Amino acid sequence: MSVMMTAHNRWEVCNGDSSSSKNIVFSAKTSHVIQLKTKLQVFLANNVNEDICDFRVEGSWTESSCVIYAGESSTIIAQMHKKHSVGSLVLGKDKFMVSVYPHVDYAFIVALIVILDEINH
User: Fold this and answer.
1) What family is this (predicted)?
2) What is residue 73's predicted lDDT score, i.e. its pLDDT?
């Protein structure tokens, strides 16, 4: 998967190294340009109208955690917590603890965490 930022705080994730619009798997965008807490709306490629998001991410990077939900529901599909260690403080190497629920694509969750990391750095 390749992850790239487009205009308007929108991220597109494509199959392989492609950046072609025909290879987009999903896109994610922030709810607002300035956010105190991270909120992402995630749209699968076949959701062309984007009236309702397919997934949403809510969290706080300062609190080093987020929760990923299915659509607008309260159904949690994954959770992430950043682990604080000497290495992360001194060497700048972050470690994450991720809980992925059954029947959820791990690569999808990792791509969302990469986007969150990029947004917050």
Assistant:
1) Belongs to the LOR family.
2) 96
Nearest to 82 by CA among 96, 63, 98: 96
Distances in Å between the Cα of 93 and the Cα atoms of 12, 45, 51, 90 are 25, 33, 38, 8
Question: What tens digit of pLDDT does each residue of 39-76 get?
Answer: 899 999 999 899 999 999 998 766 678 999 999 999 99
Q: Which domains does the chain have, with CATH numbers?
A: 2-119 (2.40.160.200)
The span from the CA of 87 to the CA of 79, in Å, is: 22
Is the pTM above the cut of 0.85? no
Biggest CA pair distance of the chain: 46
In sequence order, which residues have a C-beta less than 8 Å from that of residue 71 and are 6 or more positions away?
Answer: 52, 53, 54, 55, 56
**CA proximity to 78, closest of 96, 62, 95:** 96
